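Database export, one record per block. Field names are fixed; values are copied verbatim from the stored entry.
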Amino acid sequence: MKIFNKALDINDISAVMAERHSCPEPEPVVGYHFEEGQWNGNTHEVVDYASTHHGTAINGAHISEPAPALAGDPGTCSHGTFHAPSSRYLTVPYSNEINIDGSFSVTFWARTQGGIGTYRSAISSRSSTNAASIRKGFNVFAGSNNKWQFWTGTGVDSWDEVSSTDSSSNVIHDTWTHIAVTFESQSESGGVHTGIKSLYVNGELSISQSNRRYIANELNDLLIGAVNNEENAVESATYFFTGRLDEVQIFDESLSPESVSTIYQQRHPCEIPDPIANYRFDECSYTGVGDELIDQTGNFNGSVPQSNTSVPSSTQTATTDSMGAVNRSLDLSLANGTNTADWANLPITAMDGLDDFSISLWVNSTTETNHNCLLYTSPSPRD
C-alpha cells in the first residue's frame, strides 16, 4: 500500500500499477557451501555460512572442485565428496534450531555415483526411542527403487514416506540434480504435526500429498551423507550416500514453488580455497637443516639437501634469487649453466588422503633439456 501527497492522474496510476520489485529470498537457518578448501576431521571445520551450526567430516569426506552443479563464478563452486567404501559423511551437533517443530524445508544438490538399488541418505536428522517404536525427524533418500524419497517420523512405529510413482523423481545416476522437500504444518497434536509434504526435482514439483505426519527429532545430530540407524536410541550412522553433495540448506518455513525455483537457480561467488601447503621460498639461504624451507600454513615445512653424488657438494645449497616472480625464488641452477641435481624435500604427508588435488607454482627454466621434473612423489627418501 502506498500513500501519496497529491491526486494521481491516470498516467500516474498506470505507472504505479506497473511497478514491480524483487521478492526477498528466504533465509536458511543453516547452510553449507562446502567452500572450506579441505576437511581433516576437525571439529566445526564444515562451515555453516548462515549461522553457527558448523559440522565435522567423518571417515575422509572431502571437498572437490571439478564439475560443479552450476559452473562458472558465480556458481555452486566446490562440493562435498562422499565415496565408498569408507562410509564418509558429515555430522552437525544436535540443535533445536535445526530440528524445527513445525513447517520446514530442505534443499540440496546431489550427484549419485554408486549404490544403485540401495538406500543412500543425502541428509537426515532423525531418532528413534523405545526400541525404535517412536520415530522422529526426517531424512531424504535416493531410494532402493532409485527414486528420491522424503521420509518423516510419525511419533509411532512407522515412517511417513513420500515419493512419486512416475519418472519425475527418478534418481539419474552420475548427474547433478537439485532436490527440495517441504512440509507445511496445518495442525498439531502432542508434538505430531499434520500437513502437506512436497518433493521437487530440479525446481519442478514431483509430488505433493496432504494429511502427512511429522514430529521433530529431539536427540540425534544432523547427518549429511548418512542416516541415523533407526534401531538404536544411541546415534550410529548407516545408509551412506555415495557421490557428491552441495548447497545443503534447511529453512524454518515451507517454501513456495517460486522460492524453490529461485533456490534451484542460486549461485554465489566462488572463494579461492586456502592451500594445505604454501611455500614462498623467501628464506635468505638454506643450510641443509631440516624444516628450514617454510610452509606458510605451518604444517609441512621442508628441507634443501646439501649433498648429492652427481655434482660437487659445494654447489648443492639451493639459494634464493631476488629476481623471482614473487619476491624471492628457489634457485636450482648452477653458476656455469650446467644441469644440477639440486632439489627441495617436501613432506609426503602433505598429500596423504587426497583423492583430488591441485598444485600451482611459477617456473623459469634456464636449461633446454627434454625432461625437467618439477614435482615428484614416491615412497623413496626423495619424496
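Remark 1: Residues 10-18 form the longest helix (9 residues).
Remark 2: Residues 125 and 222 are 5 Å apart (CA to CA).
End of record.
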